Amino acid sequence: MKMTGRLNVEIEVENNMCKCASCPFRIVLPDPDPDDWFNDDDEKIVCRVTGKEIASALRPYETDGITVPVKRCPLLNEMNKE
Ligand code: SF4
After folding, report:
1. Is there a contact between 12 and 76 (Cβ–Cβ < 8 Å)?
2. Which residue intervals of the chain are DSSP H helices?
3. Tens digits of residue pLDDT in 31-73
4. Residue 34 vs residue 21, higher pLDDT
5. In which order are the strands placed within the sheet that holds 43-47?
6. Whose CA is nearest to atom 6 of ligand 1?
7. Residues with CB under 6 A from ligand 1
8. CB burial readout 33-66, b (16+ within 10 A) else e
9. DSSP 19
């Protein structure tokens, strides 16, 4: 289901976990492993609202599956306080 949080952003939520791939504030950045050329294309996810890293050293196919608990999402957590 979709939940609407602060800034009127709709985020997909399942089992009380936010799917960051559905959020416009998710940023995917390169995160190459300097010690392993095999993981040169690793990626990390940063939340643009908090500026914090959500996950790192991800294979590219893993980035869309990353979720965070609703209570840790700055947009939906604020909504829950109201
Ligand atoms: S944690 Fe950040 S990137 Fe993930 S859904 Fe919440 S606001 Fe969006």
Report:
1. no
2. 74-81
3. 998 888 888 999 999 999 999 999 999 999 999 999 999 999 9
4. 21
5. 26-30, 43-47, 53-58
6. 73
7. 11, 18, 20, 23, 25-26, 47, 49, 68, 73-75
8. eeeeeeeeebbbbbbebeeeebbeebeeeebeeb
9. E
d(CA 76, CA 63): 20
Q: Which two tokens stand for residue 1?
A: 């289901």
Residue carrying the six token digits 């609407």: 4
13/4 Cα distance (integer angstroms): 10
Per DSSP (E only), the strands in the chain are 2-4, 10-14, 17-19, 26-30, 43-47, 53-58, 67-69
Pocket test for ligand 1, best of 49, 63, 72 (most atoms within 8 A of CB): 49
The domains of the chain are located at 2-81
